[in-house]
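Show me any protein, fold above all:
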Amino acid sequence: MKTIEKYKGFEQGPIRPPSEASSLLIRVTRNCPWNKCIFCPVYKKKKFSVRPVEHIIKDINSVKKHSDEIFHIAGEDKNINRIDLQNYVQSLSNDQMPALNAAWHWFISGTKSIFIQDANSLIIKASDLITILSYIKKSFPFAKRITSYARSHTIARISDEDMKAIVKAGLNRIHIGLESGADEVLSMIKKGADKNTHIKAGKRVIKAGAELSEYIMPGLGGVKLSKIHALETADALNKINPHFIRLRTFAVRNKNELYTAGDFEKCNDVAAVKEILLLIQNLSGITSSIKSDHILNLFQELEGYMPEDKEKMTDILKNFLSMEPKEQMLLQIGKRIGMLGSVIDTNLPLKLADVKKECERLGITEHNVDQFIEEAMSRFV
């Protein structure tokens, strides 16, 4: 006999894409149904489960109740009366606070987008997902975007008809972890999808009318597979032509299976920049927007549209590679510790002088910079 799950209140999962930082988070599934990618630490040792639709509806109702009250307190000018807000908060029980916090975060972030969690919400029945999406749209008709993570393996198994129905119900952007277009790399990291599956899934999302974000991970193939990782990933992206290509530089907190399995050698910043350059140089015939919106990326200003900004983006990478090792080190450290922003900064020479002093204080040289960078990056994984 199947145990009926008891509703325990509003839930939120552990992560969302950086581009969804302003989104209201609605949890549809818990954790990841695949959970075997050896580069990802997020859901390890956690069991996947699908939340009952009625529980999700209760979550939506809770957020809507608090959202409506916040809008009422704010009035047309959205100027919050703090006394009225405080009185409202004090009238609530502790178990109502998670939903209130979600509603408040969404209000101060602009109430424009909603992200459904966790790692692969599209794995649930299409009819259930359509019910949830329709209810979200009915509850929050002013929201401009509803988005979700999804696995290529899952989308490739959804029919075109169901995919179109899901998009019509309101899911208008999907985030997929492509990671790589090279089968050798995908197999090594236990991604659970090959290049053809990625291409098939990406095309299906676009055909259904949703925006598609494909995430790629420079450095994931290590030194040995760096070239094929770049070339095959570019080829896959050329075939898909996603709306967004998002860069996520590979990093791990502890040396995992990639290292213990054999001869994996991690790419340093210079090798990763060479790989990204090769990737962008081989993008052709697409109209994607390239985004470098993650703290792990060396050049977060590496953004633009294909094909018109291709040269601008490659110039940033070429300029870095043309520098002497000491200059590269200063740029790397300055960016990693937050002393430098864009390389186009007009005050760059003065800031680099400050970075040099910091490197001298920390004992960082061009000979040990890779070790320092790896330790710094591991803190953000």
